[in-house]
Sequence to fold (499 residues):
Amino acid sequence: MTHHVRVRFAPSPTGYLHVGGARTALFNWLWARHTGGTFILRIEDTDRKRLVPDSLEDIQESLRWLGIEWDEGPGVGGPYGPYFQSERLELYHRYAQELLARGAAYRCYCSSERLARVREERRRRGEPPGYDRHCRFLADEERARLEAEGAPSVVRLKVPERGTTTVHDLLRGEITFENETLEDVVLLKSDGYPTYHLAVVVDDHLMEISHVMRADEWISSFPLHALIYRALGWELPTFVHLPMILDPTGKGKLSKRKQKRADGHVEENMTMVREFREAGYLPEALFNFIATLGWAYSGDREVFGVDEAIARFELEAIRKAPAVFSYEKLEWMNGVYIRALPAEELARRLVPFMARAGIEVTAEALLPLIPLVQERLKTLADAPAYLDFFFRDAEVPPPELLVHKKMDVESTLRALKAARDALAEVEWTEEAIESRLRQLAGELGLKAGQLFQPIRVATTGKRVAPPLFGTLYHLGRERVLARVDRAIELLETALSQQE
RNA sequence: GCCCCCAUCGUCUAGAGGACUAGGACACCACCCUUUCAAGGUGGAGACAGGGGUUCGAAUCCCCUUGGGGGCACCA
Fold:
């Protein structure tokens, strides 16, 4: 029973799922799947002030999108529920009471104003900010009086004044803290809700969690949690603190912040799973990339599938050092996954991104165009820019775009007219178009690019577009000729204005 | 300020005392391929933070320094 691996991801619904949270969830999930254990989703909704309405939904959606399914938790239930902390209040009260009874905790009646004052004073004196333990040493009569008055109170942990507390982390070994540096943290708030410290210990114990995998930032409160476990007489699960994911600047946790890009554009970097989804990242790519942050599949492979990751995942292989999140590498990896997709699948996934760009098209209609763009896409959201001219009129190109840098308006005009004639009668297959146009370039004494650029710009409206012959073929003769005609007119106008 | 954690190319990492002339990947540079852009191919540049130990031998073990990160709420 105790050998069965039970792990959990315990987000609080105070915001959308962050990639850091997703990585924590992923590692827990990988460990569960690797060991045939159980992965639990528990919602830590004890901060009523910071609740974000649709974040609960987003967290679940984002996890599912990544393929991280939970065995127990919201929606699926399980024998250790409820899985919302807000529905477990009486449990926390019971154990807070127990801690009180055992003399491991005490009631504190200090107002938040007094607390703020104390903190400020301590800071001024260069002492660590924190609680001065005023209520810990309240005289019995005073305590009784406050109780009789019905003064609001919180329950605080009674941290030993001296000595040390040693905890054990699977990756780091023993970590020892001077108890003097620990604070009498609040366990139960005056609104009757527990703080994280109490709730996490009670739930992890009651839910028989075998391995607590959580972010690094929890190490500093680890001794507090250990103290609670011991005060309650409970055995500690195995703790594994995962390295932080750092901002690309390497300065601080990955978080929303303005970033100035090379082109001078200031934009906010993506941090939420949903943002990556909306930006056209594939779940399998994000999954893969996130898995390489703090863990390595092997020395020479970093593109790997879910099953491979599950087979290979080991706790001991998790790195201790924080990892910088590289948007560039994620983008590259996303391209790798896009290229590996079957064309039908890519077409299907592209549909919503085309729609978002105002192009309503079916996967079937997109399918023939996939070979033209598949290896060019870094994200699904790139597709409309490559394909829009197939579905709407091409942008009217400025004349100078039509003219190759080694040509002038006149020669371009000549080339385009010749191309028009050739395209009007050539057999309409990709191969025939290509060989005819190459032949034409030779006849005109032009390099291929000198002839192809004006045709490309005329038919697509852009200088950078998918391969020309396939593009022309799929555009169809009628549209190709119409667009070439338009370009010819454009150039003629430009020419007459020149004179 | 106090406490804690961490430390291999710019970045993600392999490496768990001799197999290291420190390997792979992203990014970067050059060349090749080429109708643009990609993709692909070949090659290049690029790291064990510093200093002490331990050892026949240290990227790997220990200590110090430095640097980075995290925490110090009736938030999680």
Residues 341-391 of chain A form a domain with the Helicase, Ruva Protein; domain 3 fold (CATH 1.10.8).
